[in-house]
Design goal:
Cytochrome Bc1 Complex, Chain A, domain 1, 11 strands, globular, 5-stranded mixed β-sheet, about 425 residues
């Protein structure tokens, strides 16, 4: 396996390099350790909005210029904001990668934030939020997260609250950018066909002159301990009921996180590369025609987050029915654990899913950037080994400790008749 090397420039920029010579392409990522986790009330959604503004140009690369250059070079580029970070990336033919490196260096220091463009993007982002609101599960997820996190920044959706999106100013956005977009708060990752010494020299030439500022103090508030099960009830026009059950779990750097990942594969099958029709919850809920579908989500995060299971109910079936069956399956797992066959299958599914998600140089670069954000340098490189070491006893142990009522948040979305809804 190609070796990953790590470096730090004098101005504080972390650099991660991995040579992969299977094809003449390179993926270049620049990630910033700031996301919705770091947003106080009044500025929710600001990280995502700043991400949008980074595509509005600099003096060197006016709006639209990079679209044309990268398209002509046969590459792709994009960006996204998560709870813990904001990422920018370009994947290009190896001999064209200087375009990406120069562009991201320029955007790190010289984004313009034109007032007219800021107002135009306000409309775009509010429309994006309103589009999300057309999905009933968005309302359920927002209420569940709001109940689970009363203090911590995971409380709000990445898109932000519409009240804040209407109130924030261009100066708010620019101050957020200037505070967080600096070498000491960033990682630069290259994966692909290059010589590491040459690549490091290029990076130093593009990024070494950017002003050295200390890493910003990130806004983050610790969530108090939960003192018992919490429940939320949502009513929205529609035809389908949903039931969501979440349990608090540790952050991704914690040794129990990967054990919970294997538990999820056995329970829901959601983390597998194939369908989940042999999983416990599919058999208990979908095969019995209580649910039209069941899925789960467990994501790596900096701070403790949630393991979420969501059930899409069939017509005429109630959330109470789904809850009874789901809690029975959790209790059965806690009482009897999983068999050796189930463990082997769950581990193989998780390994296959991870291998599938890291086939390309673009995906490998993303996971390396995320490892930096998680403050665990070997998180990506050691992931498969940690999966292999998970035992049946480990799965039983985390089921008993985390899937408990005190640790639980339950959300129910009950559809209402649109004809009876009043404005």
């Amino acid at each position: 396996m190609p070796q990953t090397t790590r470096h730090k420039l004098p101005n504080g920029l972390t650099v991660i390099l991995k040579e992969v010579h299977s094809a003449p392409i390179i993926s270049w990522w620049v990630g910033y350790k700031v996301g919705s986790r770091n947003e106080p009330t009044g500025k929710t959604g600001i990280s995502h909005w700043v991400e949008h503004m980074m595509f509005k140009g600099t003096e060197r690369f006016p709006a639209g210029a990079l679209d044309r250059e990268i398209d002509r070079a046969g590459g792709t580029w994009n960006a996204f904001t998560f709870m813990d970070y904001t990422m920018y990336f370009e994947t290009l033919p190896a001999d064209k990668i200087d375009i990406a490196m120069e562009a991201e260096a320029d955007r790190m220091a010289n984004a313009i934030f034109d007032p007219d463009e800021t107002e135009s993007e306000r409309t775009v982002i509010i429309s994006e939020r309103q589009g999300l609101e057309n999905q009933p599960t968005f309302w359920l997820a927002e209420e569940v997260r709001g109940a689970a996190f009363r203090v911590h920044g995971y409380h709000h959706e990445i898109i932000g609250d519409e009240t804040d999106l209407r109130a924030m100013t261009r100066d708010d956005l620019y101050e957020h950018y200037r505070r967080h977009y600096c070498p000491a708060n960033a990682v630069a990752v290259a994966v692909g066909a290059f010589d590491s010494a040459d690549m490091l020299s290029k990076i130093e030439s593009f990024y070494g002159s950017i002003e050295a500022r200390g890493a910003p103090e990130l806004f983050a508030r610790q969530e108090p301990s939960q003192q018992g099960e919490r429940r939320v009830w949502v009513e929205r026009p529609g035809k389908t009921a949903f039931y969501e059950i979440c349990h608090r779990i540790p952050n991704a750097a914690h040794e129990d996180w990967v054990k919970l990942k294997v538990l999820d594969n056995a329970l829901s099958g959601s983390g597998g590369a194939s369908d989940n029709k042999t999983s416990r919850l599919y058999q208990a809920l979908v095969k019995t025609e209580i649910a039209a579908g069941v899925g789960a989500m467990i994501v790596p995060t900096i701070d403790p987050y949630l393991y979420s299971i969501i059930v899409t109910l069939r017509d005429e079936r109630s959330p109470a029915e789904a809850e009874e069956v789901l809690l029975r399956e959790i209790a059965r797992l806690q009482e009897h654990g999983i068999s050796g066959e189930e463990l082997s299958k769950a581990r193989k599914q998780a390994q296959a899913a991870f291998a599938y998600s890291t086939e390309s140089v673009t995906e490998q670069a993303y996971w390396l950037a995320q490892s930096f954000v998680l403050d665990k340098e070997d998180w990506f490189d050691g992931y498969l080994d940690r999966l292999t070491r998970v035992s049946a006893d480990d799965v039983l142990d985390v089921a008993e400790r985390y899937l408990v009522p005190k640790n639980r948040v339950v959300g129910i979305l009950q559809p209402t008749d649109p004809a009876t809804e009043r404005e």
